[in-house]
Amino acid sequence: MSSAFVYAAVRTPFGRFGGALAEVRPDDLAAVAVTGVLAKAPGLDPAGIGDVAWGCANQAGEDNRNVGRMAVLLAGLPVTVPATTVNRLCGSSLEAAIVGARTIECGDADVVLTGGVESMTRAPWVLPKPSRAYPAGNMTAVSTTLGWRLVNDRMPAEWTVSLGESNELLGEKLSISRERQDELAARSHQLAAAAWDAGFYDDLVVAVPGVDLARDEGIRPGSTVETLAGLKPSFRPASEGGTITAGNASPLNDGASAVLLGSAAAATTIGLDPVARVAGRGVCAVEPPMFGYAPVQAAARAIDRAGITWADIAAVELNEAFAVQALACIDGWLADGMTDPEIVNTKGGAIAIGHPLGASGGRILGTLAARLAESGDRYGLAAICIGVGQALAVVLENVS
Q1: Cβ atoms of 50 and 294 closer than 8 Å
Q2: Domain architecture of the chain: domains with CATH
């Protein structure tokens, strides 16, 4: 089997809910990421792209009808370039990269464009369609922005609690304090701001035409444990042990990411040298409320399949859906053999940068490849938790 390599990665700046990207359709955001990553490989004839795998979690509004294919057409690629859209909720664009890597490894294509998009601002309200015309009762519009909706009555109630309550349960189970959560959140903002100031993201982020947004909109460089400590819990009252606030959880966001994958032989076609090899992958499922802890096992599987150990991992990009979830994973990894928690998210995480669901997996994978190229370290891990009890992880080997 062939190996799959990362050749290039980009993303848009991530906008806040109702913020700078609010007027941009998700299919247009996706097209920006497509053209942005192909601009890094000007020698590549787009007709040579064997397939496009795209991630999106919602797909209930303007991102419907196979948004990956819509992005290809809107970006002006030849109509002969095929595309599919995959949905593993928060892990959708990392799933897309995994699909692309497998496609290359089994020889079905030499070049695969992957990525993902989400506009949480523009996610529609939906109504259940009545089985008979003109029902007598009222109908309620349901927001599709985040979380459960139109829940099947057969689903156990304890599985369908909110994402926030799930993570309150996780923090309670693992005794993770509010202070630790606020410390991680402050670190996320400070490191993200420092990375932007140092120019780390300059080559990873492409502008959205017509939008005045040069950086991720949610970063607050002045965040401290003291300022975050003043926020009220969002899901449980403090009197009932609530610890999760708007400050130590990822916000709602809009954005897109893209990762260009290829075989070793595709270097000539793409016109670039590869940056990193996809060395291992892991998927894991747990009971739905404990989804935040699932990356521990997913990472273990990816590392094992790469034929290495935690001692070989020099960089980790973990999507910070919630600070409590990130801390649970870090604690689990330390128990599994990770020796230095400071290798996690050294360029900031989703609490600061943002978490536009379908785009986050591509973001962490692209960031990980760039971190390895910058440091010269050999192996890194990208991991993401996924609602309804799943997680994905990918090990990259630096070849730059």
Answers
A1: no
A2: 5-122+251-398 (3.40.47.10)
